[in-house]
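2024-03-11 09:14:02 INFO worker-7 job=invfold-0412 stage=load source=structure_tokens
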């Protein structure tokens, strides 16, 4: 199933990706599971900017826990675990989960949380008081603005188009 979704999203260029964004906003994403269209759209937007991405995957930890990763974004300057939520304001749980995932990775890896519904005040407070500051928060308006500008400026790093 996941391979089909990767093939499907990779078939989209900017105009179709913007139409998918409008469908995500309206809540009408036929053929996609809950939140999947948003999750894959974010990664595809990076990919269209010539940034390497890894689409959602699972990692089996030695403890027997199956860790779900929404995606990874690799640029020459940064590697980032991506977590995407297409629902109301995100509370602290996804931030705590991502922080835990980052603790099992090299210290140079950062986290990026994409939330179409924004973040609660406790989530914002938690993100500002974590040390080190390794998780960036993107809310829906920022995502939409960047999607429509498609200026290649993602996760605070200007990424040259086409190299």
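2024-03-11 09:14:09 INFO worker-7 stage=emit residues=163
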């Amino acid at each position: 199933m996941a391979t089909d979704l990767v093939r499907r999203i990779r078939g989209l260029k900017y105009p179709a990706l913007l139409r998918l964004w409008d469908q995500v906003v309206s809540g009408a994403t036929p053929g996609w599971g809950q939140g999947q269209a948003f999750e894959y759209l974010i990664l595809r937007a990076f990919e269209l900017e010539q940034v390497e991405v890894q689409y959602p995957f699972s990692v089996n930890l030695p403890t027997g826990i199956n860790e779900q990763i929404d995606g990874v974004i690799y640029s020459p300057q940064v590697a980032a675990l991506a977590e995407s939520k297409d629902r109301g304001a995100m509370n602290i749980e996804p931030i705590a989960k991502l922080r835990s995932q980052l603790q099992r990775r090299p210290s140079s890896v950062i986290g990026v949380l994409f939330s179409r519904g924004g973040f609660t005040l406790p989530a914002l407070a938690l993100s500002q008081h974590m040390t080190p500051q390794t998780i960036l928060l993107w809310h829906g308006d920022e995502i939409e603005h960047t999607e429509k500008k498609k200026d290649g400026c993602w996760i605070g790093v200007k990424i040259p188009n086409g190299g």
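2024-03-11 09:14:09 INFO worker-7 stage=report msg="The two ends are 32 Å apart (CA to CA)."
2024-03-11 09:14:10 INFO worker-7 job finished
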